[in-house]
UniProtKB/TrEMBL annotation:
Organism: Pseudonocardia humida
The protein's name: Pyridoxal phosphate homeostasis protein
Family designation: Belongs to the pyridoxal phosphate-binding protein YggS/PROSC family.
Residue span(s) of domain Alanine racemase N-terminal: 18-244
Source domain of life: Bacteria
UniProt feature coiled coil, ranges: none
Length: 248
């Protein structure tokens, strides 16, 4: 059980952190000649309890990013119990295995990590079944995860395969191609990484104008991502503090 006043202290901590993040976003947008309203803030809440998500909702945050399908499904239900009047949006920002596509399709409002035709097909089948049975009201918006350096040990599709994957997803009746997501590789200079991301995203957008969302940038590098046109920043540590590493 939490100590008396623990919830209020946590809410105050979140408010302070959120104000700092919003200031950073605003300053980055000013430097880039952009309107801060153009940048969506996704609070990455992996390993964060539903009670904390409820406090973040109270502070005006609307979109939450989760990395693990099972953890997220239970959290979505619990947040709905805690804040029944709220309508949070949930993004899957971590890698997705095909055997978890059906579970993700039940709660995700957006999947940002489609990086193969097999994953796209698994999601498409799951969403179409839900559409037929009333489990979803609309197709699932997805972003394609781009691998900046093409390293197969990390998630993401290399540059040569990005447009073919976009073509495939655009034909999936259960999915809506909305854009590109990327993570800057460790050790790569930030502006170089996000310049490559922007180039890849622009290629996809040119062929598929509806794919106009770029999700790039996290707690330590989102200023650079904003300079290179990111519309979505995924912020965890800067909002909720350090969290213990969780097993996959």
């Amino acid at each position: 059980m939490s100590a008396p006043g623990a919830g209020a202290a946590r809410a105050e901590e979140f408010a302070t952190r959120l104000a700092a993040v919003r200031t950073r976003i605003a300053e980055a947008c000013r430097a880039a000649g952009r309107d801060p309203a153009e940048v969506e803030l996704v609070a990455v809440t992996k390993t964060v309890p539903a009670e904390d998500v409820a406090l973040l909702l109270d502070l005006g945050l609307e979109t939450f990013g989760e990395n693990r399908v099972q953890e997220a499904g239970a959290k979505v239900e619990r947040v709905a119990e805690l804040r029944p009047a709220a309508r949070p949006r949930w993004s899957l920002v971590g890698g997705l295995q095909r055997n978890k596509a059906a579970a993700a399709a039940r709660w995700a409002d957006r999947v940002e990590s489609v990086d193969s035709i097999r994953v796209a097909d698994a999601l498409d089948r799951a969403v179409r079944r839900l559409l037929e049975t009333g489990g979803r009201a609309a197709p699932l918006p997805v972003l394609l995860q781009f691998s900046v350096d093409g390293d197969p040990r990390r998630g993401g599709v290399p540059a040569a395969d990005l447009e073919p994957l976009a073509e495939h997803v655009a034909r999936c009746g259960g999915l809506q191609l909305r854009g590109v997501m990327a993570v800057a590789p460790l050790g790569m200079e930030q502006d170089r990484a996000f310049s490559a991301v922007a180039t890849a995203a622009n290629r996809v957008r040119t062929r598929f104008p509806q794919a106009n969302t770029l999700s790039a940038g996290m707690s330590g590098d989102f200023e650079s991502a904003i300079r290179h046109g990111s519309d979505v920043v995924r912020v965890g540590t800067a909002l909720v503090g350090d969290r213990p590493l969780a097993s996959p």
